[in-house]
Write a structure and sequence with these properties.
The chain has 429 residues and is α/β, with parallel strands linked by helices. The chain is 35% helix and 15% strand.
Length: 429
Amino acid sequence: MSFKAKRHKGTGGNQMPIEALRCKECGTEYDLDARYVCEQCFGPLEVAYDFTRLDAAETRRRIQAGSAGIWRYADFLPFDGGPPATRGSLEPGLTPLVRADRLAERLGVREVWVKNDAANPTHSFKDRVVAVALAKARELGFETVACASTGNLANSVAAHAAALGLESYVFVPADLEEQKLLATGVYGTRLVGVNGSYDDVNRLCTQLCETRPWAFVNVNLRPYYAEGSKTLAYEIAEQLGWQLPDRVVCPIASGSLFTKIGRGFGEWLELGLLDGELPAFNGAQAAGCSPVAEAFAEGRNVCRPQRPDTIAKSLAIGDPADGPYAVELAQKTGGSVESVTDDEIRAGIRLLAETTGIFTETAGGVTTAVLAKLAGAGAIDSDERVVVVITGEGLKTLDAVREGHSVEEIEPTLASFEAIEGVPEITTV
Ligand SMILES: *Cc1c(COP(=O)(O)O)cnc(C)c1O
Ligand SMILES: [Zn+2]
């Protein structure tokens, strides 16, 4: 089932650069409607733009005068009439980029910045991709939206659908963390728990796409959805004073976020909004689901599917759609794709919390642990500026920190407090 986009031709000063959907493999072009796979070669489709229509200085002024969220980057998003009319709903973006000197010191690295994308409306970076996908779904005339989710996408689709007054169906693996199920159901969505892995959920949604007139944000709307991740790159560059970092450490599930951050920087380099070259890209995966890290280590870009077994459920995609492109980005930029164990993930969550005050979910533990691993291996040069992308909130995966500290229970008396082991002795009052 296919819904045709109305093509608005630019009127007057409207010079939006969006052109077509284009196959990443063979270059065949398609109209900007709800489709995601090339009919010629089965390659994935991506939104194509012509940035020669933009003037760098004018574009920069438009960005700076824009909203305090992702719609300030509308020139680089797949809408041909300017920012979509979803103002006042849940606009994500402009999350803090904070310099983390105590983390850097702990790791023996000069300069580390944390991009805290837990600071979004539903506490993960997924709000960026969902806001773009749902605005596109509305433009294309869909009334029902849906997704296959590892957890955070479920929260986000349910919330944004509620904000926009759209019907929603959210499909997740039935064994998801309880916090993520509760934080999805509350929005009044139809929450469907599938007995299977994420890859099973995704396969089911691909079949449903053929029989239901719904916008599956990460299936038939995937080319638009993926564009939302570019805004993370734009923000990092803008927040660093229109400069590129030297290295980006970023988690990989399907590989979409990782590759689109590369694409975002690339577009701004092409347009002349930034100088220099792409940063080194280090991808982060959990050892219990590391098809991209494994492919990188073995020097191939085809990823062999795995059956996930890790506490990092939000990254548990065993058959990553953008895996080959993620490997290529890591290779091309002198980066890598690394994996870390569940114990290292738990330690990563604590390290970030203790040195920055930022409490991240398991995916952020993966990213922080990979940063620590790179630092430990001496892979980070002494003059580098490193950005770590923290994609989600710790309150959603509380089980990961249940061990490791305890509550000291006492009677409400001074003596009881003074009796606790390790409390410093009273010196003066
Ligand atoms: C979805 C997700 C990612 C990355 O997803 P991709 O499929 O690689 O784009 C990273 N972190 C969190 C917390 C996520 O929910
Ligand atoms: Zn093709």
